[in-house]
């Protein structure tokens, strides 16, 4: 009787930092060659192999051919918003699943600061995904409708930056895409280590990790990722409302979460970003703003009020009125002295705004670096 042979293991991304360091060490190859490999792939994102990298030891080429691929994911679609400030990337992973990353461009010269023109110019922020789907099940978030499918490797997280670099020079990275980053903690830490090293050289102060409030991970975060910004998806000022709209909040009681954040801030002189989605008639009344102000008045915090983005006709929520958003902002600012911003909505017309990321591919679409997908709604993303 013939026996089927085991499938050959997939080659790993060169950006899986721990794995490539381990393999190089076992082969007696210095780790200082690794950033040279990353730089080559970053500058040649369509390279099919790694033989063109100059000045590596001979055994390094053999190892790379055997166990690694320059890029394990593929950019299958790219969609620009009408105003061209936002580009949403659809990325197919080696296992056949897909995730999204969103490039958001801002011109810091628009508007004034302290009565004077703002300095700077166009800057790009990349919103990356850390998981395929999400197990948190937040009722206002499209990604939650997918359920949880898989964690991304650190290399797959980094490859989103490689793909995005074909469209803009990325200055900031936010882990606010698909998935709960703290539930893929080791890959998160490893990917950020690559982001902040050569050749990417991103400042940790320009990286933000968002979480629904995974308490044990927050306790580790302050030591493992110093100077990286922490954002907490609070979305309600009391436990009951949180549990209604964020089922996972039952595992992370608000009182314990706030204690963890207080401990975090006691050790880090760094503001915590509080994300608060504005849901009409649920958490957007003046009394809720006062509750939130009292909850945060001892913290060094920045509250970001997020107008709800519809996720289809099945949504049970409506967007708060502009009046309620402004009223909440005024209460937090004027009564409690808390810096409060209203998130600028970008990419709504391509379903690339906050809470709208969900992937369901009906067919294969090809999009090279310059091809834009005009009927993105067909993908339900």
Notes on the structure:
With 381 residues, the chain is an alpha/beta fold. The protein folds into 2 domains: 12-69, no CATH class; 74-350, Alpha-Beta Barrel (TIM Barrel), CATH 3.20.20. Helix content is 28%, strand content 21%. The chain contains 10 helices and 16 strands. The chain has helices at 17-26, 34-43, 58-67, 154-164, 185-195, 215-224, 239-245, 254-267, 286-296, 322-335, and strands at residues 12-13, 68-69, 74-80, 86-92, 98-107, 112-113, 116-117, 122-127, 131-133, 148-151, 170-175, 207-211, 229-233, 272-278, 301-307, 339-342. It has a 10-stranded mixed sheet with strand order 3-4-5-8-11-12-13-14-15-16, with helices on one face. A two-stranded parallel sheet has the order 1-2. Strands 6-7 form a two-stranded antiparallel ribbon. A hairpin with a 5-residue loop joins strand 3 and strand 4 (86-92). Helix 4 (154-164) crosses helix 5 (185-195), helix 6 runs parallel beside helix 8 (254-267) and helix 9 (286-296) packs parallel to helix 10 (322-335). Mean pLDDT is 86; it is low at 1-8, 346-357 and 360-381. Its cofactor is [4Fe-4S] cluster. GO terms for molecular function: 4 iron, 4 sulfur cluster binding; metal ion binding; RNA methyltransferase activity. It is found in: Cytoplasm. It comes from Panicum miliaceum. Keywords: 4Fe-4S, Cytoplasm, Iron, Iron-sulfur, Metal-binding, Methyltransferase, rRNA processing, S-adenosyl-L-methionine, Transferase.
